[in-house]
């Protein structure tokens, strides 16, 4: 089948919106039971990059999906392929972006010239020879059992015929050469003409087994080849879901899983509304795949302040810093430019400075507490001494005041006595004068 260019596939999706319907809608990759899907027969996973496992224009894994990404790689070891329209595409010159993404997520990144969904043939070519021997499940036993019994009966019948006819007493071993040639060969103990050596039973049996193996190609195919059954995971219907439909046109069993909770919701919001308007529902396969959706997944941690903390500018600044540094990788050389990445270096410097200031703050608090204890003790001693001095001064003041009062009272008493003596003398003189005048009359 010839690969169609991506614009024609987009046009096909507009004309047939049913192709845009995913097989399963989930909030994120953390809501999928990957081990259950592996046990159900799926053997490969194709994952989108931007807004599915990472933020747009970032190679680091979105932190809330760390455990889910580990579960996905553990359920499909060596069979997880990252397909992105940025890293590994024709826009990625030299494959530097694909190499950086592969180093960050520890999975291979597909190098493709045609953007999604026109790279279905490249995906099939990548997984060719990588799936290994098939795993026999219980549902395949009724299908394979009659074929295996028939081939075993044919092989047993052929073996009996060779042992009883070709190598047995009915026909004997094949004789080579004429009678004279065999007589000469027996006399000189050499091989007859036309034969390189005596045909032994082991050689005949080996040849028979080789012929029997060549006559049963179906069994060899069942033991060595496994059909591709792939899960296409992404956040876009025009790219990821259509990619699953293109894989089905190549005869591959593919199921599309659409993630709805995006690390950056504002990314191409208008196109997402158009996709949901054209294909709002799911396919009939969604009822079968709903059993692999986790009912109560752990909610991703929220980095934004809630409640009254939203009014606190310090809390808002902390949440903005935590959200900006959440997907920052470790300090490493940028493979694209060969220099240090500025953002990880800046974040590491700020975090190191914060750690140093934190340690200094701890020792400053301890030193402040020690100084406060000693200052408080000195202040208490000074205050007690001041109170004692003030008590002494107050007692001395009251003593002086009492002495002055007593002195004033003594002076007042003396003055009162003196004034009373002065008043008694004129009165006595007046009374004596009156007494002298009365007898004369």
From TrEMBL:
Stretches of Polar residues bias are at: 205-217
A GO molecular-function annotation: phosphatidylglycerophosphatase activity
Q: Which InterPro entries match?
A: PGP_Pase (IPR027706)
| Matches recorded under Pfam families | PGP_phosphatase
Identify the stretch(es) annotated as Disordered: 191-223
Q: Which protein are we looking at?
A: HAD-superfamily phosphatase
């Amino acid at each position: 089948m010839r690969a169609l260019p991506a614009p024609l596939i987009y046009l096909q999706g507009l004309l047939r919106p049913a192709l845009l319907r995913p097989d399963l809608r989930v909030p994120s990759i953390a809501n999928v039971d990957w081990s259950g899907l592996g046990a159900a027969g799926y053997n490969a996973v194709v994952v989108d990059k931007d807004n599915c496992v990472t933020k747009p224009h970032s190679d680091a894994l979105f932190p809330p999906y760390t455990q889910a990404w580990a579960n996905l790689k553990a359920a499909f070891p060596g069979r997880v392929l990252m397909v992105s329209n940025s890293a590994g595409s024709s826009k990625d010159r030299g494959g530097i972006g694909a190499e950086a993404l592969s180093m960050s997520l520890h999975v291979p990144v597909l190098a493709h010239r045609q953007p999604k969904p026109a790279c279905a043939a490249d995906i099939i070519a990548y997984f060719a020879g990588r799936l290994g021997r098939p795993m026999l499940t219980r549902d395949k036993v009724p299908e394979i059992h009659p074929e295996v019994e028939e081939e075993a009966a044919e092989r047993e019948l052929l073996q009996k015929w060779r042992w009883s006819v070709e190598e047995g007493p009915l026909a004997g071993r094949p004789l080579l050469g004429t009678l004279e040639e065999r007589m000469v060969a027996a006399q000189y103990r050499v091989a007859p003409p036309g034969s390189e050596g005596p045909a032994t039973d082991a050689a005949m049996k080996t040849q028979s087994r080789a012929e029997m193996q060549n006559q049963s190609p179906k069994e060899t195919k069942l033991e060595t080849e496994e059909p591709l059954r792939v899960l296409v995971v992404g956040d876009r219907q025009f790219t990821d879901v259509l990619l699953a439909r293109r894989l089905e046109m190549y005869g591959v069993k593919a199921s599309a899983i659409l993630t709805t909770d995006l690390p950056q919701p504002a990314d191409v919001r208008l196109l997402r509304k158009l996709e949901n308007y054209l294909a709002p529902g799911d396919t009939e396969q969604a009822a079968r795949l709903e059993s692999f959706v986790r009912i109560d997944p752990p909610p991703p941690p929220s980095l934004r302040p809630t409640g009254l903390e939203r009014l606190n500018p310090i809390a808002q600044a902390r949440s903005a810093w935590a959200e900006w540094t959440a997907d920052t990788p470790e300090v490493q050389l940028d493979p694209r430019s060969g220099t240090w990445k500025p953002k990880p270096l800046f974040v590491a410097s700020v975090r190191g400075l914060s750690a140093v200031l934190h340690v200094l703050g701890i020792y400053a608090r301890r030193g402040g507490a020690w100084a406060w204890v000693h200052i408080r003790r000195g202040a208490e001693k000074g205050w007690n001494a001041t109170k004692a001095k003030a008590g002494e001064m107050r007692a001395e003041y009251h003593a002086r005041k009492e002495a002055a009062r007593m002195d004033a009272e003594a002076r007042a008493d003396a003055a009162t006595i003196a004034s009373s003596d002065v008043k008694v003398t004129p009165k006595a003189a007046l009374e004596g004068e009156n007494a002298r005048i009365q007898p004369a009359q």
